[in-house]
Predict the structure.
Amino acid sequence: MADQVEKVKCLIVGSGPAGYSAAVYAARANLEPVLYTGEEPGGQLMITTDVENYPGYPEGIMGPQMMDDFRKQAERFGTDVRMEMITKVELNGGLHKAWSESGQEIHAKTLIISTGASAKWLGLESEKRLMNKGVSACAVCDGFFFRGQEVAIVGGGDTAAEESLYLSKLCPKVHMLVRRDELRASKIMQERVMNTENIQIHWNTEAQEILGEEEVEGVRVINNQTQEETTLPVSGFFVAIGHKPNTDIFRDFIDMDSTGYIHTDGKSTKTNVEGVFASGDAQDNVYRQAVTAAGTGCMAALDAERYLTEKGVI
């Protein structure tokens, strides 16, 4: 266990597109950033195969390869990347304390939170087995691969409604699996879904098993009222039941909504605690894309640099 306090100008917690982009900008501004990758280095892109919607990769790129490139770029400019978790923080304006899982105590003048969010899953064995083989938690990311094919989407909230509408523009038929007899989505989203001819809503319906060995070949569903089982011939299966921001360790200090998304000030990345900035999916419950996460990571580093300049630290 470490017993010596480490003092840093900029501590970055999290290592997806937001964290690594923040690190590139912070390092180039001589903030000498220290980045803790967290439990899932690279974030959600580590379980994403083909990324085709990030600018600069005309042929597409594998998610893990992209994150490896991001890490190397951050390290090239001097970021100290540590494959470890931050397990505890004490955030008070001016000086922020953090502890790593190995016991290292860090005192940081600025803290950039880029811990991301994790998709909620149904918990099916077949869902895990066919991840990235037709199973996805992001229709905007992966829907393009299923154009011209039948797909299913699980969920009844605004996200599920938005993603089913997106898929309806690419796919001849979208099966929307709703476990209740009503949608939780806003009225306007409900109306749009109901008025889209190629979206078929299956009420009181839950997925029991996703079929296929190497790719999705269908989904077996059950009506939770009649107990009738049906098999739907789909080649894509999308889960849209929400995300959980990985922000629990900051809850006692940082303002966030009831689900854990961090509140930021206006168009900045500033939080309610002086010198603490939030970027990526930890504060974005709307777009949730790699490119927008990278953009807010850049913003957070610039906000941290300006803050330190104003304080006379750099």
Summary: Residues 121-239 form a domain with the FAD/NAD(P)-binding domain fold (CATH 3.50.50.60). The mean pLDDT is 94.
